[in-house]
């Protein structure tokens, strides 16, 4: 690394990528002592246009791009979904939703800090995309153009949302303090009573907030509502869902975005350290070594019990969550109930 001491960050990345073409930019940034956002920003004026912080307005325009690939990830799991943006709803300056057969998202704009229109640059391993990062320089969501995307619309959006100051430097902030929970003081019986009174899966997070309990500890004290299973059961779930041609829902999130796939999974591929879905329109990459605990969870709703498989890392962060395909107002598919309750 000492040979790169006097190089600009742009040149450091080009040199590093040339010598380590298999290392992803997210991991390379750590090795270079910087952030992914700062590497991207270093190319401002050549391969990158810095965008204004008008993310709700920008996201309303995403349908103009046509067929794209949306990527959302956390430390342990990557979710890639191809398709078109359909309905984009902006509830406020802070929250938005994308609903459609292909692209399904829940956006938390207060976490979105830096946006870029990125152009093709083979030496830098850049592909044409809209990329959004949080205040810590970590990727929140990326929208990659495909061959049949509307490339003219991309150019238009890049020009219309171009920031007046095209500066390569970013004001990176330290991470917010970790939330402080009341895990040791939760009144378990009252908590379970509230859990049993749930009417909708969307009531779950407000219940956790009411008791100031972390999600993982909530599962530990949930009694019959949660059961820990072996960490390899995610592989069984995906393989069985593929064999049975079952439509499922796959949620992957970070603190700025939730991305959801609804539909079948077909091609399940395990390679050392990873379990993957490698379908034409949906890819999932889950790092097996990061799985610290795996839970089958039951939530009461007005439509009956809803079961999920929830996977956590060693820090208690959820890597990925699986449900059977369902819509509000409909009961869970019996085939899904049978599959997930059979996991051990």
TrEMBL record:
<dbReference type="InterPro" id="IPR053733">
    <property type="entry name" value="Heme_Transport_Util_sf"/>
</dbReference>
<protein>
    <recommendedName>
        <fullName>Haemin-degrading HemS/ChuX domain-containing protein</fullName>
    </recommendedName>
</protein>
<feature type="domain" description="Haemin-degrading HemS/ChuX">
    <location>
        <begin position="212"/>
        <end position="342"/>
    </location>
</feature>
<dbReference type="Pfam" id="PF05171">
    <property type="entry name" value="HemS"/>
</dbReference>
<dbReference type="GO" id="GO:0006826">
    <property type="term" value="P:iron ion transport"/>
</dbReference>
<dbReference type="InterPro" id="IPR007845">
    <property type="entry name" value="HemS/ChuX_dom"/>
</dbReference>
<feature type="domain" description="Haemin-degrading HemS/ChuX">
    <location>
        <begin position="34"/>
        <end position="161"/>
    </location>
</feature>
């Amino acid at each position: 690394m000492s040979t790169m001491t006097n190089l600009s960050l742009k040149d450091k990345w080009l040199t590093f990528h040339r010598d380590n073409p298999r290392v992803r930019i997210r991991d390379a940034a750590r090795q270079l002592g910087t952030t992914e956002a700062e590497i991207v920003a270093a190319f401002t004026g050549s391969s990158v246009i810095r965008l204004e912080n008008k993310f709700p307005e920008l996201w309303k325009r995403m349908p103009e791009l046509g067929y794209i690939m949306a990527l959302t990830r956390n430390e342990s799991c990557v979710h890639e979904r191809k398709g078109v943006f359909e309905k984009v709803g902006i509830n406020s300056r802070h929250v938005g939703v994308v609903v459609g057969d292909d692209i399904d998202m829940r956006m938390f704009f207060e976490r979105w800090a830096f946006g870029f229109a990125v152009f093709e640059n083979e030496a830098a391993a850049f592909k044409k995309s809209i990329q959004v990062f949080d205040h810590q320089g970590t990727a929140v969501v990326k929208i990659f153009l495909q061959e049949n995307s509307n490339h003219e619309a991309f150019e238009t959006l890049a020009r219309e949302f171009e920031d007046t100051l095209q500066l390569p430097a970013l004001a990176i902030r330290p991470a917010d303090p970790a939330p402080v929970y009341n895990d040791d003081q939760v009144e378990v019986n009252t908590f379970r009573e509230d859990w049993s009174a749930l009417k909708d899966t969307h009531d779950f997070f407000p219940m956790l907030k009411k008791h100031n309990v972390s999600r993982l500890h909530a599962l530990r004290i949930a009694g019959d509502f949660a059961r820990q299973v072996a960490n390899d059961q995610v592989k069984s779930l995906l393989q069985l869902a593929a064999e049975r041609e079952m439509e499922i829902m796959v949620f992957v999130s970070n603190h700025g975005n939730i991305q959801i796939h609804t539909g079948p999974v077909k091609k399940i591929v395990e390679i050392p350290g990873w379990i993957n879905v490698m379908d034409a329109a949906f890819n999932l990459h889950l790092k097996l070594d990061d799985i610290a605990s795996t839970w089958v969870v039951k939530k009461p709703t007005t439509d009956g019990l809803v079961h999920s498989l929830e996977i956590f890392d060693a820090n208690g962060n959820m890597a990925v969550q699986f449900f059977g395909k369902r819509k509000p107002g409909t009961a869970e598919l019996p085939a899904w109930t049978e599959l997930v309750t059979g996991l051990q």
